[in-house]
Design goal:
The complex is a heterodimer of chains A (about 325) and B (about 400). Chain A is mainly α and about 325 residues long. Helix content of chain A is about 75%, strand content about 0%. Chain A is globular, with a radius of gyration of 19 Å. In chain B, helix 2 crosses helix 10 (about 280-295), helix 2 (about 40-55) packs across helix 11 and helix 3 packs parallel to helix 4 (about 100-115). Classes of the chains: A mainly alpha (about 325), B alpha/beta (about 400). Chain A: This is Branched-chain amino acid ABC transporter permease.
Chain lengths: ~325, ~400
């Protein structure tokens, strides 16, 4: 258990990091908003992969569901952003909840394959339903009302940035609280030894369904944010490739730690961004090399590296 | 010396050197420069732009154009918007260009509209794209623009019945809808419309079922590259050509794929906007320069779209003297006509979309034994039929 001031400091880290990034990249706020939104999605993935110990390649299904739900909601129901976020989160949670009932009966590779299959099915449905979703052309044509009736969406992405950062902050603070509750502890215990938790009377299946649904809701929330700030939803938001990309970010940062999700997203997107602007033709090679190096020398991800350095400095054993 | 004096001295020095320096106009080009689409779009874009610059130099004395290339591998609207925003806000580009995929072009439209950035679309071919921003101009084509005259030609050839077989994605569906509409309105009959999944590699079953229907012709739309190769081979292997079912296509025999198609492509007839075999001094000059700069490059429709797009950028830069004046720039390009390597083209004064000839071509061998799209019939000044609803 961390001490009270440390915990408060941890809570303030997200807005602080946001301000530092804003100072570093004052004219790239759309890019920063993208980082914040991706960070929310990677946090939600960490719940499933890191905390519940379930490797998935279908997490984009919930992100895309949230994005399409928020887009359709803005187009046909009401273009108010905050209720749009709720619509997106609900869509993500419904997709996750419904599929979790089936998914959580599978394990290991079967589970992984089923997550891929489910996201493929959803991708095909959205791709076929051209009249509703726009198919490959994407869903567009909606505009958003000002947030809380005050702040307008601007093309520089100023509002998009603050709005996404605020949501990221709330999600991060709540997840930190959640992970130390009995529920959070049980989820982690199930990851470490599901058989034992079961024999002690813990409800393994139910906990997994709940955490997967919650994670889906957060992924849907990220999708909704993306839909509202970009104002176009593309099929790629549902793709398995995207699921794999966010998994790479999480592994890069370190699974099973909320910090890992944030650090991984930030480092991956910033490197990606620099590499792609320096050499738009060969940058992928560079990203690949960095990943290989990290996996070889820091198997626990970047946050594990930070923890090791911290332990070495303070002379304590690494956690 | 106080800090203020230094600043003032600096300002004076800057003011003195300014007239001597060329005015730099920055253009941000967004396209797939890496990844699976770089061969069919990213590289041709770059080759088209650089060929134009090599042939024409700078737009005017004292104006220098700088192209900033940004990689966007796949349809990803969020990334497209972030790149466009960054190019405008951080790099200070006056113009944007490129865009292969429709969702990306639509995502950047908000930036173009609100920041008033004239943007030349090099590819994205859904009808809706150009209307998304008042500062959008297109130098490629729309699916309706090429499929309607192709349907017209099929009717002129006396085909009464067709089966359409398209890849199941937005461009394929666009092509199918527009072809079928024009063909039935002209008195023809569409026996069946088949949509094949994008990942299809074995087209045999589709072609066998088409053969049983015995249509006069088969209208096809496929994405670039391998699917086209296997489709054309399957068309020959299953004997549809011998059964008298004519092949009607659009971009299937485009230059980047043509030599790989091999002899199976001989005799295929398509309707499209550019053939490397187009006979004009403009096309010869373009091909010669391209060959000089990139000995291995094929003159491809995407190359010409970027080449003409650069012409459009130059027109706008000249009209505004390199200064930032988006409204004057866009007014200058509206209604402009010029002779492109593909033939005469015009930017429509109202829609800002391209008006161009669509040529009916037949694959033949030239004197050197290379395959070419020989143009033999022209539908002049075709607009985007998709927008005229």
């Amino acid at each position: 258990m961390t001490s009270f001031p440390t915990r408060i400091l941890g809570d303030l880290a997200v807005p602080l990091a946001g301000l530092i990034l804003l100072a570093l990249y004052p004219s790239q706020q759309a890019f920063l908003a993208q980082i914040a939104i991706t960070a929310i999605l990677v946090l939600s993935l960490d719940l499933v992969v890191g905390f519940a110990g379930l490797a998935t390649l279908g997490h984009a299904a919930m992100f895309g569901a949230g994005a399409y739900a928020a887009g359709l909601y803005a187009l046909h129901v009401w273009s108010e952003p905050l209720t749009g976020l709720i619509a997106g989160a609900l869509a993500g949670a419904v997709v996750a909840g419904a599929t979790a009932l089936m998914l959580m009966r599978a394990h290991g590779l079967t589970f992984l394959m089923m997550t891929v299959a489910i996201s493929q099915v959803l991708y095909e449905i959205v791709s076929k339903a051209r009249d509703v979703t726009g198919g490959d052309d994407g869903l567009f044509g909606f505009t958003m009302q000002p947030v809380l009736g005050v702040w307008e969406f601007d093309f520089f992405g100023k509002l998009a940035f603050w709005y996404s950062l605020a949501v990221l902050w709330i999600v991060f603070v709540l997840l930190r609280r959640l992970m130390v509750t009995p529920f959070g502890q049980t989820v982690r215990a199930i990851r470490d030894d599901a058989g034992r938790v079961g024999s002690l009377g813990g409800r393994v299946y139910r906990h997994r369904v709940v955490v997967y649904t919650l994670s889906g809701g957060i992924a849907g929330l990220a999708g909704a944010l993306s839909a509202q700030t970009v104002q176009v939803v593309g099929l790629s938001s549902l793709s398995v490739t995207y699921s794999a990309e966010i998994l790479v970010m999480l592994v890069l940062g370190g699974t099973g730690r909320l910090w890992g999700a944030l650090v991984g997203t930030l480092v991956f997107t910033v490197i990606h961004h620099y590499a792609a602007s320096i050499d738009p033709v060969r940058w992928m090679l560079f990203i690949g090399l960095i990943l290989v190096v990290i996996v070889l020398f820091l198997p626990g991800g970047l946050t594990r590296g930070i923890a090791l350095i911290h332990a070495w400095l303070t002379g304590r054993r690494a956690p | 010396m106080s800090f203020g004096t230094v600043l003032r001295a600096g300002a004076v020095a800057l003011a003195m050197t300014a007239p001597a320096m060329a005015e730099t106009v920055k253009v941000g080009v967004i396209g797939p420069f890496s990844g699976p689409f770089s061969g069919s779009f990213g590289e041709p874009f770059r080759q088209g732009v650089e060929t134009y610059v090599a042939m024409n130099g700078q737009p005017a004395d004292g104006i220098e154009v700088e192209f900033i290339w940004r990689d966007l591998q796949k349809p990803d609207p969020g990334q497209a918007r972030a790149l466009a925003q960054e190019l405008v806000a951080k790099d200070g580009v006056q113009y944007l260009a490129g865009f292969v995929f429709t969702p990306n072009a639509i995502a950047a439209a908000g930036i173009s509209q609100q920041a008033k950035i004239p943007t030349v679309i090099f590819n994205a071919s859904a009808s809706a794209v150009v209307s998304q921003s008042e500062y959008y101009v297109r130098t490629s084509n729309t699916l309706a623009q090429v499929s309607v005259p192709t349907a017209q030609d099929a009717l002129d050839k006396g085909y009464k019945t067709v089966v359409t077989a398209v890849s199941d994605y937005a461009p394929g569906v666009d092509a199918e809808t527009n072809f079928a509409k024009a063909f039935t309105e002209g008195g023809g009959e569409v026996l069946e419309s088949i949509r094949m999944p994008l990942s299809t590699t074995d087209f045999g079953p589709y072609l066998q079922s088409i053969q049983l229907k015995k249509p006069d012709a088969l209208f096809v739309f496929l994405p670039y590259g391998p699917p086209t190769y296997s489709f054309v081979n399957a068309y020959r292997d299953n004997g549809l050509d011998k059964a008298g079912i004519a092949f009607v296509g659009t971009s299937e025999t485009q230059e980047v794929d043509l030599q790989s198609l091999g002899d199976a492509a001989l005799g295929l007839e398509t309707g499209y906007f550019y053939s490397a075999a187009h006979e004009s001094p403009e096309n010869d000059a373009f091909k010669a320069k391209l060959k000089e700069l990139y000995p291995n490059a094929e003159p491809n429709p995407a190359t010409v779209a970027a080449f003409d797009g650069t012409h459009a950028l130059y027109e706008m830069i000249r009209a505004t003297g390199g200064k930032t004046d988006p409204d004057a720039a866009i007014a200058a390009i509206k209604g402009k006509s010029w002779e492109s390597p593909r033939g005469p083209i015009t930017i429509d004064a109202d829609t800002r979309d391209i008006v161009q000839n669509v040529y009916i071509r037949k694959v033949e061998k030239d004197a050197d034994g290379r395959l070419v799209n020989r143009e033999y019939k022209t539908y002049e000044a075709q607009p985007d039929f998709g927008a005229q609803k």
